[in-house]
């Protein structure tokens, strides 16, 4: 474990492969604003590590022998006040575990073959409140579960809850657009977009943008993005 200085973004690495953790640690610790504060070889170790180290971000493997990343993610988000941001890490983007982890509240996912610069960008993005959306991958995963969500296969029941502009914002969220990009597309201010996003999340009872987009795909409200 490396001592964290004031102002650094603390990262907890969770993976049952020591070599993967070592590679991620080298990437993270080479950055002036990031620091690995701890490592865990299984999801069962995560609650204690989070309580003791208070990381800002967790890079969480989804497949581990004792407690997988889905259960660990759910436990952290349900039991830790002001929980860290969680990025799940996987080998395959169509991994069923990834979908379940995103539904549990993970803020995005990365493939283990992701370029180092994109891993660093992802860490900084989630710390600043953004969600990592990969529209094609999420669309493919959600398509397999269409009809299994809260909408029973159709968005009709909750569709009327969204205003026309909120629907526009949700569709642009599904394309992976940031608030600034949505604002430019709709010719409104970023603050207005932020308000619309908040309304969408509240009406769909979604924790974040990823959950809202997954729900929209599952129910068939969004078919293509």
Automatic annotation (TrEMBL):
Transmembrane segments: none annotated. The modification 4-aspartylphosphate is found at residue 61. InterPro entries: CheY-like_superfamily (IPR011006), NreC/VraR/RcsB-like_REC (IPR058245), Sig_transdc_resp-reg_C-effctor (IPR016032), Sig_transdc_resp-reg_receiver (IPR001789), Tscrpt_reg_LuxR_C (IPR000792), WalR-like (IPR039420). Residues 10-127 form the Response regulatory domain. Signal peptide: none annotated. PANTHER family: TRANSCRIPTIONAL REGULATORY PROTEIN NARL-RELATED, TWO-COMPONENT RESPONSE REGULATOR. This is Response regulator transcription factor. It comes from Actinomadura vinacea.
């Amino acid at each position: 474990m490396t001592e964290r200085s004031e102002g650094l973004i603390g990262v907890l690495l969770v993976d049952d492969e020591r070599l993967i953790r070592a590679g991620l640690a080298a990437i993270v610790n080479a950055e002036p604003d990031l620091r690995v504060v701890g490592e865990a070889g299984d999801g069962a170790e995560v609650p204690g590590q989070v309580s003791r180290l208070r990381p800002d971000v967790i890079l969480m493997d989804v497949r581990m022998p004792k407690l997988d990343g889905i259960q660990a993610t759910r436990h952290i988000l349900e039991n830790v006040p002001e929980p860290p941001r969680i990025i799940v890490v996987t080998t395959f983007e169509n991994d069923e575990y990834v979908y379940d982890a995103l539904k549990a509240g993970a803020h995005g996912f990365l493939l283990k073959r992701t370029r180092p610069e994109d891993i660093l960008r992802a860490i900084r993005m989630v710390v600043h409140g953004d969600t990592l959306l990969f529209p094609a991958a999420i669309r493919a995963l959600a398509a397999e579960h269409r009809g299994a969500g809260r909408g029973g296969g159709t968005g009709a029941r909750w569709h009327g809850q969204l205003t026309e502009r909120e629907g526009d914002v949700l569709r642009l969220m599904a394309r992976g657009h940031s608030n600034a990009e949505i604002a430019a597309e709709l010719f409104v201010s970023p603050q207005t977009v932020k308000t619309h996003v908040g309304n969408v999340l509240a009406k769909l009872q979604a924790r974040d943008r990823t959950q809202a987009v997954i729900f929209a795909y599952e129910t068939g409200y969004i078919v293509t993005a």
